[in-house]
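Before a colleague's protein record goes any further, I have to sign it off. Thanks in advance; the entry in question is below:
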Amino acid sequence: MNILEKVVLKVLEDQQNIRLIRELLQTLYTSLCTLVQRVGKSVLVGNINMWVYRMETILHWQQQLNNIQITRPAFKGLTFTDLPLCLQLNIMQRLSDGRDLVSLGQVAPDLHMLSEDRLLWKRLCQYHFSERQIRKRLILSDKGQLDWKKMYFKLVRCYPRKEQYGDTLQLCRHCHILSWKGTEHPCTANNPESCSISLSPQDFINLFKF
């Protein structure tokens, strides 16, 4: 919980990646609820009250995240919509989450038109999913063209998206120690590098499952 607490405090301080940490906390809370409800049928390490306290802590963090009010800076210079359309599209192509693309399209009518660009959604589908997966979920629009946007959200419901992280936790399988990537720990194995594996957020949550 110490590592998770530091992550939450960092998000609260920087007010960035709020949605991602909300989803992480919700998934973790749901998993813990399942374990607590099945006490006696599954193994919980430690006192049940300790796990209930941790669940209450997660709820408290979620409330703090929900209370964040992001204030827009008083900036009168160049804005995103002032950029040439080709640059706006180029930036939007860097978004790897369709929900971000939809949210951006809700900011202004011009951005909405750009966010509906078929090529954007096609690239998003091809980035996250294989050709075989895409062929199984083809959807045609009223004009007889492939509706890449609908296909993307259909594919998301059927297959996991390609994972992409700025930084990851490392687990030493020899010492059973968690550390950030690039942070060394005094491993006693003959070949420490071969013992280290990267953990995705889901892998981190799975550590709490028994």
